[in-house]
Amino acid sequence: MNRLDTNQTRSEVIDRDFLEHRAKLIDIAAFLDRCERAEGVDDFRLRAIRAAIPLLIDGQSERVRRILESFSDPTTGPIPEAPGKGASGAWEGSS
Amino acid sequence: MRYIDPHAHMVSRTTDDYEKMALAGCRALTEPAFWAGYDRCSAEGFRDYFNQLTSIEPARARTYGIHHFTWLCINPKEAEDVGFAREVMQVIPEFLAKDNVLGIGEIGLNKNSKNELQVLEEHLEIAAQHQSLVLVHTPHLEDKQKGTRLIMEAVRNQPNIDPGRVLIDHVEEHTVKEVLDGGFWGGMTLYPDTKCTAKRAADILETCGTERLWMNSACDWGVSNPLSVPTAALELQARGHHPEAIDHVIFKNPMTFLKQAPAFAKRAEAIDVGHRPE
Question: How many contacts, defined by CB atoms under 8 Å, are there between A and B?
Answer without folding.
Answer: 103
